[in-house]
Amino acid sequence: MSNNIDKFPDNFLWGGAVAANQCEGAWNVNGKGVSTADVATAGSVNTPREYTEGIIEGKNYPSHEAIDFYHRYKDDIKLFAEMGFKCFRTSIAWTRIFPNGDESEPNEEGLKYYDNLFDECLKYGIEPVVTISHYEMPYGLVEKYGAWRDRKLVDFYLNYCNVIFNRYKEKVTYWMTFNEINVITLHPFIPAGLRISKEENKEQVIYQAAHHQFIASAKAVKLGHEINPNFKIGCMVVYPLAYPETCNPDDVLAANNYMNKHYFFSDVHVKGHYPNYMKKYFERNNINIEFQDGDEEVLKLGTVDFIGFSYYMTLVVSGNTKGKTLTEGNMTKGIKNPYLKASDWGWQVDPVGFRISLNNLYNRYEIPLFCVENGLGAADTIEDDGSINDDYRIEYLREHIAEMKKAITIDGVEMIGYTPWGCIDLISASTGEMKKRYGFIYVDKNNDGTGTLERRKKKSFDWYKEVIKSNGENL
């Protein structure tokens, strides 16, 4: 029997994750166009972000500067290398390559930027893990075509993929097509640029747009494998594990139905066809998905190599929510779980739920998993001596990594790697805040946009460095 039976795989990819629109800034530099993220104003836990029609003078758009990673990436990647990162998950800003989205020729300045960024990673032996579209797309495609409701976006997306696959085929192996693609059902504008009027059938618009993204993803997978057979191309979903409130069969059925709405997205990506439970749902709710000739074959031929996913928290679902205390997190809503503690933003902390989720996903699909988001958003305090003692973050990550190890070594789950979210502080996607921090590296930036942007190591920096050095043995 192998001595490695209780250890993480030797080639396990430890790293960290960010998104271009939440860290780069430089929103209109070197030919970059306006993205859907660029029209999202600052908000808070009590004030929703506003998604304006174009840029309105006087509004606070936090992505416009973010943490200025665009100009500071060399120093930041050096810090990632000091922690020992094996990989770095980031995204390409579509509008740096195609400013309006429907151009025939790419913006060379944008392509050069990512050449330099990936080269900087590779210099330190850090594998780039790239999301092709992470909660942003050209705003021009929203204005001109109504975003992903229009089938034309499939071709615009594939043109974009063709350019970046060919440009970076020797630099990037791991790709993901759409970030948290299932969030289209929770917040249609953030992942798909959809503005839906009250007169429209909301679900009809959402699921038709999702179909266009499925086709785009499947065609991208096939194209990528043709360009470089060594590419590993995955989907990316938010995994919101839902527990039934009780063993009442109505609660169990409600939780099952809730999960099916999310499994639908990974089912199509991995299995290559629409599951019967969603076909029946569409039929019973008068939703008619327009398939073009050949779409079924496209889905079948474009299945993914791995499942990328985010895991932050779990939910409780009931057949009857009347009079129940509800809680929210990561754009999802459920009943408060009395057995769990919660973050400052109300997200319920559930390390064992992480192990359960890993088992659920792997046993359902039997392809490798890649946890590309996991972490704790918290308000950090700088002490008088300049230190930032984020023991709460260390505790959160320690407990989740311990459960991930059990899933791999005891349960037999196959995993590629683990990239905690916001390895450096960045703009929160859900609230637009800086105060809600996830990073191992503190960035001096405030919610109102003030700050020096100075970088500072937190206590978790050295802790995570030891985790990586010991391949998960020293937690």
From TrEMBL:
Gene3D superfamilies: Glycosidases (3.20.20.80). PROSITE patterns: GLYCOSYL_HYDROL_F1_2 (PS00653). GO terms for cellular component: cytosol. Keywords: Glycosidase, Hydrolase. It holds the Pfam family Glyco_hydro_1. One of its GO terms (biological process) is carbohydrate catabolic process. GO terms for molecular function: 6-phospho-beta-glucosidase activity. InterPro entries: GH (IPR017853), GH_1_N_CS (IPR033132), Glyco_hydro_1 (IPR001360). It is an enzyme of class 3 (hydrolase). Its EC number is 3.2.1.86. Belongs to the glycosyl hydrolase 1 family. This is Aryl-phospho-beta-D-glucosidase BglH.
